[in-house]
User: What shape does this take?
Amino acid sequence: MKYLGIDHGQVRTGIAVSDPDGKIAFPRKTLSGFSEKELIAEIARIVNEEAVDRIVMGIPLDVEGKPGKEAENVKRIARKLSGAAKVRIIEWDERFTTSQVLTSLKKSGVKTGSKRDVIDQSAAALILQSYLDGINAG
Assistant: This one.
């Protein structure tokens, strides 16, 4: 089963895809400059192009694990995307993924100031890999 991971933000949306067996997540691209309607159509196009079976959507929860205003916005977009892409969407806790990516990139010597695209798609890959690890454990 092939998965698409999404890290949706107010400005950019990071996209990652899994291998066909649903074991490993790979950063794919970062989308920006789209209206909400265009963004949903573009993600639906990628789902079709990549033959994706499921979408794992990162939900931004607060430190206590509760959804706030941004989480509700992401859930609303997920509902619209589910209809447009015609695949099931799995909501997944994305707390601390961006900070984990930033730490990892800095440790690797990558200057992150101008690398927002890399950060967003890497965060999407981290969200997706976390989910894949969970379902493939055991």
About this structure: The chain has four helices and five strands. The beta strands are 3-8, 12-18, 25-32, 54-59, 88-93. The mean pLDDT is 90.
